[in-house]
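Budget justification aside, the reviewers requested a transparent look at the raw inputs and outputs of the sequence design task funded under Objective 1. We therefore reproduce one unedited record. The lines immediately below are the structure tokens for a 403-residue chain.
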């Protein structure tokens, strides 16, 4: 069976100085329009209890462009500005559905610099990509092929904190759905010592370079802290920090992509735990380990890849003591401090703490699937149907043993 999915293909590109200036202007206008529309919507709600629709913000934008102070909004392509209003609409929809917090203002320094172009605002022909308001195509490094005959529906241009430029093309791609060998299933536990522990006993560790990079990052951050505010040296030090961050992020993403692809290929049912529960337990070192491991990123990748390949992904709440529960006989151990890495049950089974937890997770997940309640509602997203990291799903809980 084959399935057509929307898939983003991301590449680096090198803009000319004119293109870089045009894009920087566009990013600025996108941020401004988003913030002004958010301000208008917030005021309407707090002062008059009115909900402002996307169409109403669109009309506001038309008005702003006619004023003298905001006439510069006419200098950039109007499409990314409209898209910013759509993104705001999605943010509000997610807020009303209680999937996300109240939308926040975009900051000049901290927010992602990006602009989204739809088909009317770019041309993709003979392998060349040209954006609105530009005469020459972008100098894109086509590091991997697009699907044959691809025709992008959306193009997103962005620049990261390290100054690198990226373009992401959203295309239709055909995925061959092949059932997993043996229709196997796996429980995946976010461990302490290792990045992940699987119910089959396999432990997956963090990328080898992570520790060295982290030390380099700490050094660069100390260096930055010593530099005088507003100085050229401080700007240089900040760029160095951003570059190390970018490298850590790249390597982790690469590692997680390989990992999630393998897990989805090998298994028909994948069971993961909901870590928001664990974070609420307030163990700081654990929370840190989880964020280091990029659990959210892992989960997002696993979600869309499971969907692409026709796999069942089950998320379970962990309100039951999976570490203390023997996966062999079901007996409950008395205490299980975090420093206990292995233990022996009364039935005689010797357990590795994390493997035992992953096994219990798998059993709980399969119980959920058996009850036919493993399906979660789709989230509202701007275009890809993918979940973004900010949103949380309502979780399937039915059928999990409550102890
Ligand atoms: Zn036992």
């Amino acid at each position: 069976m084959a399935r057509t999915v929307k898939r983003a293909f991301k590449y680096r590109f090198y803009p000319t100085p004119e293109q870089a200036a045009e894009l920087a202007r566009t990013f600025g206008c996108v941020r401004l329009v988003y913030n002004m529309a958010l301000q208008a919507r917030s005021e309407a709600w707090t002062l008059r209890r009115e909900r402002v629709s996307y169409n109403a913000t669109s009309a506001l934008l038309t008005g702003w462009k006619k004023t003298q102070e905001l006439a510069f909004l006419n200098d950039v392509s109007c499409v990314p500005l409209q898209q910013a209003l759509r993104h705001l609409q999605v943010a509000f929809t997610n807020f009303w559905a209680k999937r996300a917090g109240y939308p926040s203002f975009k900051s000049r320094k901290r927010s992602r610099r990006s602009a989204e172009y739809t088909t009317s605002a770019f041309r993709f022909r003979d392998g060349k990509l040209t954006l609105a308001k530009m005469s020459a195509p972008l100098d894109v490094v086509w590091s991997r092929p697009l699907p044959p005959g691809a025709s992008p529906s959306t193009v997103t241009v962005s620049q990261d904190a390290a100054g690198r430029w990226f373009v992401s093309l959203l295309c239709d791609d055909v995925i061959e759905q092949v059932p997993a060998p043996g229709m196997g299933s796996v429980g995946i536990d976010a461990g302490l010592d290792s990045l992940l522990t699987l119910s089959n006993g396999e432990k997956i560790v963090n990328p080898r370079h992570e520790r060295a990079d982290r030390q380099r990052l700490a050094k660069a951050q100390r260096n930055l802290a010593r530099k005088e505010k507003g100085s050229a040296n401080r700007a240089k030090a900040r760029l160095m920090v951003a570059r190390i961050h970018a490298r850590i992020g790249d390597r982790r993403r690469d590692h997680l992509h390989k990992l999630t692809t393998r897990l989805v290929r090998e298994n028909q049912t994948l069971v993961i735990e909901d870590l928001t529960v664990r974070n609420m337990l307030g163990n700081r070192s654990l929370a840190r380990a989880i964020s280091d491991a990029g659990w959210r990123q892992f989960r997002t990748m696993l979600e869309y890849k499971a969907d692409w390949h026709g796999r069942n992904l089950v998320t379970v709440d962990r309100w039951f003591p999976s570490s203390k529960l023997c996966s062999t006989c079901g007996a409950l151990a008395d205490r299980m401090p975090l420093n206990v890495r292995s233990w022996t049950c009364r039935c005689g089974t010797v357990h590795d703490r994390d493997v035992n937890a992953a096994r219990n997770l798998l059993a709980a997940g399969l119980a959920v699937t058996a009850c036919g309640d493993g399906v979660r509602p789709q989230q509202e997203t701007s275009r890809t149907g993918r979940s973004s990291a900010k949103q949380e799903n309502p979780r399937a809980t039915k059928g999990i043993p409550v102890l």
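Confidence is low (pLDDT under 50) at residues 277-281, 374-403. The two ends are 41 Å apart (CA to CA). Computational costs for records of this kind are itemized in the attached budget.
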